[in-house]
Design a protein that fits this description.
By secondary structure, the chain is of the alpha+beta class. It has four helices and seven strands, in the order αββββαββαβα. Strands 2-1-5-6-7-4-3 form a seven-stranded antiparallel sheet, sandwiched between helices.
């Protein structure tokens, strides 16, 4: 049984670029754009080198994603999704994940990475702890499910929870 409601799963797998926020060693935010997908209830992204974002996660696993998902709510505001969670890094599998995501983000039949014998790389895996945004995840059912996701995750809660 999945913990993420279908509208959120659809938004996370629809090919919208995600803004990934990690925490730099000095405490400042580091923001980058990533392709994302789902494996079970984990949000995943593939990375060939050990970029700063991955080194930041090795030191502090707290992350946030923001995604513009298209459309507007009844007040005319753009629909978006924000996911706060805890990330972990697994070695290997990045090239296969990037190839799978490339068919969503670039199109069918593309080869990505666009070179032979890519390195094994790293997969960033995010366990959602809090989900918010505008439509359709603001429905009572989606909010209850997002709260259930947060309550089932280990770790500290955000201030104001």
């Amino acid at each position: 049984m999945t913990m993420l409601p279908d509208p959120i799963r659809e938004a996370l797998t629809a090919g919208h670029l995600a803004h990934l926020v990690t925490i730099n060693p000095d405490g400042s935010p580091h923001v980058t754009i990533v392709w994302i997908g789902l494996e079970g209830d984990e949000i995943v992204s593939g990375h060939l080198p050990l970029h700063r974002k991955l080194r930041n996660v090795q030191r502090d696993p707290r992350v946030s994603l923001s995604i513009e998902v298209g459309g507007h709510n009844e007040m005319g505001l753009a629909n978006y999704l924000v996911v706060e969670g805890t990330a972990r890094i697994t070695e290997g599998g990045a090239a296969d994940l990037l190839q799978r995501l490339a068919t969503v983000y670039i199109g069918p039949g593309v080869k990505f990475p666009p070179f032979d014998d890519p390195p094994p790389g790293y997969v960033l895996r995010i366990a959602p702890q809090r989900i918010r945004g505008t439509n359709p995840w603001t429905s009572d059912e989606a909010v209850e499910t997002a709260d259930r996701v947060r309550s089932q995750q280990p770790g500290e809660r955000s201030p104001g929870d």
